[in-house]
Write a structure and sequence with these properties.
There is one protein chain. By secondary structure, the chain is α+β, with helices and mostly antiparallel strands. Helices cover 49% and strands 10% of the residues. The protein contains 25 helices and 21 strands. The strands form seven sheets. Strands 1-3-2-4-5 form a five-stranded mixed beta sheet, with helices on both faces. The chain has a four-stranded mixed beta sheet with strand order 19-18-20-21, with helices on both faces. The radius of gyration is 25 Å and the shape is globular.
């Protein structure tokens, strides 16, 4: 066992028995490199990463390669999910040096942490050649290596210098142009955007849904619906158990990279809920319910949080748990296997490897009872197979995404169990992940980690708590969100009221070779866009001008990039749509009762169903203490009433659902 055996990270523990003398990232590891005067080999990955496992088996478990690493390097292993700041800094260097990024990420650093060489996966022979070449260069061209590291850091600083903020917020014309830019790269044949590999464009879909709601233009909705359908009918979606895999390796959504991430499923759950809310699609409702059920069944931890991921591999074989051959279908279903093979597109030609296929549902089954029976039997049989490992660390930001999604699913789909799970998770994060008033990034088995929370942790959790406040009208969630946002404005903002946007790390965080700040969305919303969304929601719920100004500044700080490159700014564009729409505030008084379909009464249901982009909705008793949106909002003629406001202007209260619908539809 090496030093990683005591780590909290499941990914690092996977490497605890390597013959490599791994260190965790620490001052002690950097000091050891200085003491020995050897370069640092930094290896970054995550527990569910297939190619991380491959490189581990091929190189890190090889005694001869490990001996070479130990002799010439201080070797540091980092879980990118635990330390996104380290990952961000060195991934920027990797993409700048190689033109692409990914994991495993392999960087060679000076003793000061400056990168002078970077790459991703290396086959064993190539890796050995790299190690030997770097050892020789460090010994014989030491000064040149140090200068190379300094030049790279300087170049990165120039590349990432703060851009000029836009003079004004994106208006209707700019947002329409962003939507047209997305249409230009839409895959007309297979749906989604761009070419293979295809990742779920969750934030982009949210923007396009808001675009359609604001403009009534059918084109953005059509792109969304085709993409939603293609993802959920293809092999990237688990047709038996619900939930989405990380991405599709092909353009047609047939073969996934099989790991199932919490963040993908939380973001997609919320997006499918919004699609159902907007259109009433029963298909959207089914996918949303199955995805929520997957979260509660397969990712929920004993403490009430949600685990990070299920592995891509089972017993070292990618997809082993999930794929089927015709013979395997016959072994489970007997005479019914032919119908299952037709429904799920399992043929002798196979869509995966070794005669096996992923399951797809290319069309709705003619008999849903037959289809449901086949699914149940196949899932029961699959449950007896070896199962993928679970990375059960609880990440603050991703659990925030799950809380928000489950909360909205609970109200829109009328499932109280989802709201109870969201409340349990939020309670865990506030009680365990907050230490001395500051967020920590992760916990595991009820023990909190030492890594500090980053901007996305504050933004995603704050927005989640604001969603809970809207669903429950409980002041505690609003108060806790306000505390998180106050810390974010104090510690992460670049300038007063974030007039220069946000950094990804706090001003008192560990100093790396640069302080990361990336406004672009990746698999999850960027820290800046997550905070912008939370700030906007808070301003709408409380009337806080400071929070609205900070949200506007966060959007403006990205300059023209969101309009020019909309695929990478979906969340910020969604926030811009909310700013343009008002956002709308809806207060419903007098409708208090059990959580049902779309809330507790007809006015509440109508408000949630027809809420414009970025709108907030709170339903409760008039003048409920600690609920600003319900203050000074009396009943109308002793009957429940809805108050609709845009900015500082409010319509007359209404007690009729048709009048409320007309008020919400007016632009």
């Amino acid at each position: 066992m090496n030093r990683l055996s005591s780590s909290m990270s499941p990914y690092l523990q996977q490497h605890a028995q390597n013959p490599v003398h791994w260190w965790e990232w620490s001052d002690e590891a950097l000091a050891e490199a200085r003491r020995r005067d050897v370069p640092i080999l930094l290896s970054v990955g995550y527990a569910a990463c297939h190619w991380c496992h491959v490189m581990a088996h091929e190189s890190f478990e090889n005694p001869d390669i490990a001996a070479l690493m130990n002799e010439h390097f201080v070797n540091i292993k980092v879980d990118r999910e635990e330390r996104p700041d380290i990952d961000a800094v060195y991934m920027t260097a990797t993409t700048a040096l190689t033109g692409h990024g990914g994991w495993p990420m392999t960087c060679l650093l000076t003793v000061s942490g400056e990168p002078f060489y970077a790459g991703t996966y290396f086959p064993p022979q190539q890796f050995v050649g790299l190690l030997r070449s770097v050892a020789v260069a460090w010994r014989e061209d030491h000064d040149e290596v140090l200068q190379a590291g300094q030049r790279i850091v300087s170049a990165l600083a120039e590349m990432e210098a703060p851009r000029s903020a836009a003079a004004s917020l994106p208006g209707a014309v700019e947002l329409d142009n962003a939507a047209r830019g997305l249409a230009a790269v839409f895959d007309q044949r297979n749906a989604g955007f761009g070419r293979a590999p295809k990742f779920p464009p969750s934030m982009v879909l949210e923007f396009l849904l808001r675009q359609h709601e604001r403009t009534g233009d059918p084109a953005p909705l059509a792109m969304c619906e085709r993409t939603f359908e293609a993802m959920a009918r293809g092999g990237m979606y688990d047709q038996l158990a619900g939930g989405f895999a990380r991405y599709s390796v092909d353009a047609a959504w047939v073969v996934p990279h099989f790991e199932k991430m919490l963040y993908d499923n939380a973001l997609l759950l919320r997006a499918y809920v919004h699609w159902h809310r907007l259109t009433g699609s029963p298909f959207a409702a089914r996918i949303a319910r199955e995805t929520a059920d997957f979260l509660l069944r397969d990712l929920r931890t004993a403490e009430g949080g949600f685990a990070s991921a299920l592995d891509a591999d089972t017993d070292g074989v990618e997809g082993l748990t999930y794929v089927w051959t015709p013979a395997q279908l016959t072994g489970v279903l007997g005479d019914d296997s032919e119908e299952a093979a037709r429904l799920f597109n399992v043929t002798a030609d196979c869509t995966f490897e070794h005669g096996a296929s992923t399951l797809q549902l290319l069309e709705d089954p003619p008999d849903h009872s037959v289809w449901s029976d086949l699914r149940t039997r196949l899932f029961a049989a699959r449950s007896l197979r070896p199962q993928p490992g679970r990375d059960d660390k609880v990440v603050t930001a991703w659990n925030g995404l799950a809380i928000a999604a489950l909360t909205e699913a609970a109200v829109v789909l009328g499932v109280p169990e989802y709201l109870a799970a969201a409340v349990d998770c939020a309670t865990l994060l506030l009680e365990l992940h907050q230490v001395d008033g500051r967020l920590r990034r992760t916990s595991r088995d009820g023990a909190v980690g030492s890594a500090a929370g980053v901007a996305e942790d504050y933004g995603d959790l704050a927005e989640a708590l604001l969603a809970l406040h809207q669903a429950t009208a409980e002041p505690r969630w609003l108060d806790s969100a306000a505390e998180l946002l106050a810390t974010a404005l104090d510690r992460f903002a670049d300038g007063p009221d974030a007039d220069g946007g946000f950094f990804d790390t706090a001003d008192d965080a560990e100093q790396l070779v640069r302080r990361p700040r990336d406004p672009t969305d990746n698999a999850t919303p960027s820290g800046a866009s997550a905070l912008a969304a939370a700030l906007l929601a808070h301003s709408a719920l409380t009337g806080s001008t400071r929070h609205r100004v900070a949200a506007e500044n966060a959007v403006r700080s990205a300059g023209a990039l969101p309009i020019e490159q909309p695929r990478f700014f979906g969340q910020l564009l969604a926030v811009a749509e909310g700013l343009l729409a008002g956002p709308v505030q809806v207060a419903v008084v007098g409708e208090v009762g059990e959580l049902g379909e779309l809330g507790g009464g007809p006015l509440t249901a109508t408000a949630w169903r027809l809420r414009p982009p970025g709108a907030v909705v709170v339903s409760g008793e008039s003048d409920s203490p600690g609920v600003p949106l319900l203050a000074d909002r009396p009943l109308v003629r002793d009957a429940p009433a809805a108050y609709v406001c845009r900015g500082m202007v409010c319509d007359l209260p209404v007690s009729d659902v048709d009048e409320l619908a007309r008020s919400l539809a007016s632009r």
